[in-house]
């Protein structure tokens, strides 16, 4: 009898136990899948946010750097032009004089009332046709060396040649075939440093009444060219040309003691500082975003602990949420106890 009751008890309780365990297992599996999906979604979202933020910051930093470089180049150009304008007294012209080869037309230009403050009509007539043409050739070359000169610039060159005599046509015509614009970079001129020295001495002597350039040693001139070279490369890369002409830049830095002595590094500190600041800011932003992503993504936990947490939420066998199982178990125990008591009494 006992065996029969015990077998009946096992048959009755086994399906309930299996059902409870299956239910718990299914709930545990579903909860694990839900948490995994949420974790993956959070990680993916955080990663995408980090990449998007980093790309945006990199673009902003790059744009800011490019704008800063262009601004620095423009400032360098303006400073060089201002110095030449101060040296010559002639403003950069948007309407430079044409390469006129007719002496009479040149005289007509020089006799214009606007030129009365520079030279008189009688002075204009005192110059020969050849002198006017020589001055025109020199004017065109200096315009290429610096920036476009108008008729007033031409008049000042004419006077420097044949009135002030601070320029010698004999010296100029011996070196005029040397063209500094033949070289694509300032460093290439170092190999022909003697020719460049002769060119500067003839067209821009230190006593010129038009445009004087400080006389330098070969080493000093080489230092100036080395300083100009990276600036020239950067300007050509960003703007497509090098303006004003190379001689204007030589004239500017010839008066800079640090550059002339080779004491300065031929780079743009402002550009370097801007790039460094932008890069640092971008790195900081990316780091902050990564930290935020870390905080938003749940850390991997121990499977046993995770299961305990899940089971703490889900109903277990014997809890109030499974009341009918508890009641059935109690009834079975009572029934077994009752049967055993009756059997003992019969004995």
Automatic annotation (TrEMBL):
Keywords: Cell wall, Membrane, Peptidoglycan-anchor, Secreted, Signal, Transmembrane, Transmembrane helix. Residues 314-347 form the Gram-positive cocci surface proteins LPxTG domain. InterPro entries: LPXTG_anchor (IPR019931). Residues 36-51, 64-79 have a biased composition (Polar residues). The chain crosses the membrane at residues 323-341. Residues 1-20 form the signal peptide. Residues 36-79, 260-305 are annotated as: Disordered. Residues 270-294 have a biased composition (Low complexity). NCBIfam families: LPXTG_anchor. This is LPXTG cell wall anchor domain-containing protein. It comes from Enterococcus pseudoavium.
